[in-house]
Amino acid sequence: MSPSQPSVAFQGLPGAYSHLACRTALPGHEPLPAPSFEDAFSMVRDGGADLAMIPIDNSLAGRVADIHHLLPEGGLHIVGEHYQRVNHHLLAVPGARIGDLKRVKSHVHALGQCRRLIRELDLVPEVVADTAGGAREVARLADPSIAAIASELSAETYGLVSLRAGVEDADHNTTRFILLAREPADPGPGSGPVVTSFVFRVRNVPAALYKALGGFATNGVNMTKLESYIVDGDFVAAQFLADVEGHPEERGLRLALEELQFFSREVRIMGVYPAHPYRFEARAALGAE
């Protein structure tokens, strides 16, 4: 990496889908692998990377574990989003044939997303830490009876061949990533479609959540995400992570956030950033059905 080239940290091994997301969304950035999500956050905080590419939701598997807990205390700001289509490949060493395969290695979610293929080929699934790790293990073992389910980038990275492409059961398998930086990068009101992400905790009073969210409905603000999770082992009150369309300086969202603050113990904006075009493509596709 040259001193002037920007960099982006991702969790996982080279060839992981997070690595692919970095190459797709930020081709001018040097991808830097990190062993864990915490390490990726730290690399950005400490100046070892300019950005972090972090998966937050998958259209099949749901939310990515741990990220919702790391975000509020991670000391970083959301500055962008990216939607990465997940195309699984059945990978093996050169010379391997589908009919000779006995076992297949991959992340637990990837195996679950390819059940039809595993049944069709009567393979024994073996769970590994991540898809790229499975591909690396297949390359190391050099056994033509063992395959991996991973990305095409993993095949390129570890010298494997794709015996079959698009082996996922659902053709909508997509992961949403967020881009994190040390400093916010607010695009400003009127700059085009934007998303505002924030966390909040409502007061422990009857109907607090209902009242807190009422302002978004009455002010015409579209909330595209709302998830709750327990923090600090407290089962009485939860923390919420929300995404809404709009800028906090626009009248509707400004009024909705004021109402939210009235009924909440804490409201913290995690980022204001441009909306990815996939949001509107997916909405248009739903409207056409």
UniProtKB/TrEMBL annotation:
UniProt pathway annotation: Amino-acid biosynthesis; L-phenylalanine biosynthesis; phenylpyruvate from prephenate: step 1/1
Catalytic activity: prephenate + H(+) = 3-phenylpyruvate + CO2 + H2O
Record GO cellular component, one term: cytoplasm
A Gene Ontology biological process term: L-phenylalanine biosynthetic process
EC number: 4.2.1.51
GO molecular function: prephenate dehydratase activity
Record carries keyword Amino-acid biosynthesis: yes
UniProt keyword list: Amino-acid biosynthesis, Aromatic amino acid biosynthesis, Lyase, Phenylalanine biosynthesis
Ranges of residues in domain Prephenate dehydratase: 7-182
Lyase listed as a keyword: yes
Site (Essential for prephenate dehydratase activity): 175
Domain ACT residue range list: 197-274
Name of the protein: prephenate dehydratase
Taxonomic source organism: Roseospirillum parvum
